[in-house]
């Protein structure tokens, strides 16, 4: 069940131009995820190889049966059979692909390979397949190139703190045979959090892998994105993460949307004992942009924390201090979100012997922040 027709149908409706993946004059094939071109000029075999190179492509070598099907659909109405990048080695008499890949002997058309030549053309009309042709004959060149669909995409940069990106064709349909790399680069001294939602791919066969740094080696593997459950949020240790999306030859789905954020490396500030003081970063000077500082207070069993904020000034709504009635920070332990110019004085007594706080600032407008002191009661 390859849902291609659906893709092609919707593509027009939502303004996704299927041809936009390829340079002008080339045709994108969503089955092989390659761009193809058949020349109108005619060439000998050797000239056709040169021609393809000169326009940024390669002669077509057929890499799989699904690619053969794609090529059939592409050539079934052409009158002249185009060259395929395969020829006979006259020493061994065996055929090989110019690009060194495996030559599929089952792709010959009926009664082939004959002895009538050492080069190969492709017959699109039934019975379709490879056909031996004299290398000096004049036939169209058949070129392909891998589109810049998703490869080498660098996302972010040294001053970018967040962003989104998606699988090619999202939200309609991604393509088969993809090997996409997205390199996320965040500012220095940050780590990256990333969330995939929605994430709809062909289970087991199409998947996203995450790696630490500019790597795809096993040692740097962070996780394979899970298609089920809640575990779709992941984290790097450093400020560079490689995201790799691989799909197989059949069945595609709507794909995924990734949202990433750079987070500063800010160790948690923890205090215990009988009293203490806590302040926003740099206080009484202005805090920085994109801060996310966590604080923990725990006191002796049976005691409670009596926290007083006596100075407070942040950018209203966007820079804020969260107070939690637990050491765990979540919506269900959040007791107050403080922001703006009219917070102090503020007092809070924890129900248990521990509590925590989180200070968050955005990318614009910094103020002096806040000052708090606490004691047990
Ligand atoms: C040769 O082309 C085939 C078909 O596209 C491809 O799968 C294979 O990776 C290529 N091999 C090399 C060595 O470029
Ligand atoms: C060529 O392939 C296209 C797409 O698969 C198909 O619609 C068309 O009927 C085929 N034409 C011939 C002559 O086989
Ligand atoms: C043909 O095959 C022989 C034997 O394997 C090899 O030495 C030679 O390089 C091949 N020729 C070409 C043009 O690949
Ligand atoms: C970030 O770190 C790299 C490597 O340590 C360094 O070359 C670069 O200058 C730093 N960039 C900034 C903006 O500090
Ligand atoms: C990532 O690694 C690849 C392969 O090692 C290299 O070609 C590329 O330039 C690197 N990209 C960056 C942004 O460092
Ligand atoms: C505050 O804590 C310090 C030790 O961190 C202690 O010496 C001092 O007595 C405490 N003050 C009060 C009023 O409990
Ligand atoms: C909490 O601390 C404030 C400020 O020091 C003080 O006024 C208040 O009485 C304390 N509350 C309790 C229950 O100890
Ligand atoms: C937590 O609360 C925020 C703000 O109300 C909301 O946007 C977010 O979806 C909530 N998260 C969860 C996991 O419920
Ligand atoms: C902590 O705060 C949450 C949310 O305000 C509240 O539902 C919960 O009962 C509180 N827990 C305690 C121990 O007070």
TrEMBL record:
Domain CUB intervals: 150-263, 265-377
Protein name: Uncharacterized protein
Stored InterPro entries: C-type_lectin-like, C-type_lectin-like/link_sf, CTDL_fold, CUB_dom, Sperma_CUB_dom_sf
Organism: Caenorhabditis brenneri (Nematode worm)
Keyword annotations: Disulfide bond, Repeat, Signal
PANTHER family linked to this entry: CUB DOMAIN-CONTAINING PROTEIN, OVOCHYMASE-RELATED
The organism's place on the tree of life at top rank: Eukaryota
Signal peptide per UniProt: 1-19
Keyword Nucleotide-binding tagged: no
Listed SUPFAM superfamilies: C-type lectin-like, Spermadhesin, CUB domain
Cited Gene3D superfamilies: Mannose-Binding Protein A, subunit A, Spermadhesin, CUB domain
CDD domains (alphabetical): CLECT (cd00037), CUB (cd00041)
Domain annotation C-type lectin: ranges: 31-144
């Amino acid at each position: 069940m390859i849902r291609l027709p659906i893709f092609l149908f919707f593509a027009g409706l939502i303004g996704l131009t299927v041809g936009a993946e390829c340079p002008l004059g080339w045709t994108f094939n969503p089955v092989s995820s390659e761009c193809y071109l058949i020349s109108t000029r005619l060439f000998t075999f050797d000239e056709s190889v040169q021609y393809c190179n000169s326009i940024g492509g390669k002669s077509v070598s057929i890499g799989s049966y699904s690619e053969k099907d794609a090529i059939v659909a592409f050539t079934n109405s052409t009158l002249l059979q185009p060259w395929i990048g395969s020829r006979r080695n006259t020493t061994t008499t065996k055929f090989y692909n110019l690009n060194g890949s495996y030559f599929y002997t089952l792709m010959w058309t009926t009664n082939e390979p004959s002895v009538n030549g050492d080069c190969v053309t492709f017959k699109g009309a039934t019975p379709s397949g490879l056909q031996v042709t004299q290398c000096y004959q004049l036939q169209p060149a058949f070129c392909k190139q891998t589109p810049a669909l998703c490869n080498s995409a660098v996302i972010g940069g040294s001053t970018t703190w967040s962003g989104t990106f998606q699988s090619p064709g999202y939200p309609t349909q991604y393509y088969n045979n993809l090997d996409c790399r997205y390199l996320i680069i965040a500012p220095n001294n940050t780590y990256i959090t990333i969330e995939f939602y929605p994430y709809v791919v062909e289970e087991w066969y199409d998947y996203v892998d995450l790696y630490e740094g500019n790597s795809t080696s096993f040692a740097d593997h962070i996780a394979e994105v899970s298609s089920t459950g809640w575990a779709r949020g992941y984290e790097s240790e450093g400020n560079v993460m490689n995201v790799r999306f691989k799909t197989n030859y059949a069945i595609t789905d709507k794909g995924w949307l990734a949202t990433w954020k750079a987070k500063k490396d800010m160790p948690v500030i923890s205090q215990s004992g009988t009293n203490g003081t806590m302040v926003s970063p740099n206080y009484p000077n202005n805090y920085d942009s994109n801060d996310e500082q966590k604080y923990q207070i725990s006191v002796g069993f049976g005691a409670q924390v009596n926290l007083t904020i006596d100075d407070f000034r942040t950018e209203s709504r966007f820079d804020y201090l969260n107070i939690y009635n637990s050491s765990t920070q979540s919506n269900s332990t959040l007791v107050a979100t403080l922001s703006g110019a009219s917070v102090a004085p503020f007092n809070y007594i924890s129900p248990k012997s521990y509590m925590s706080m989180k200070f968050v600032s955005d990318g614009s407008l910094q103020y002096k922040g806040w000052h708090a002191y606490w004691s047990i009661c």
